[in-house]
Amino acid sequence: MEEIHSPALLYKELKELAEQLSLPVREEATETMRGGLFTFKGKQQIFINRADSFSDRVDLLVSVLRKRDLGDIFIKPAIRELLEKE
Questions:
Q1: pTM of the model
Q2: Is 37 strand, coil or helix?
Q3: Residue 31 φ/ψ, nearest 5 degrees
């Protein structure tokens, strides 16, 4: 199985997956905003606080992407395992 250990690499892979699912990821530097899935001008987007660590960013993307239907999309085995983990 392919190993992806770096939180920065996991974040990159998950961000690309979100964008494949038509969920753009916006990174904003803010002290007041918590990241998450938002609807802005009628379109869903994922907002990430740039101040968050890559581990926190990964956790946020995993929580959003777990709720999506990913059955018909090729996902690297290591990423799919992460998304299916309880």
A1: 0.87
A2: strand
A3: -95, -15
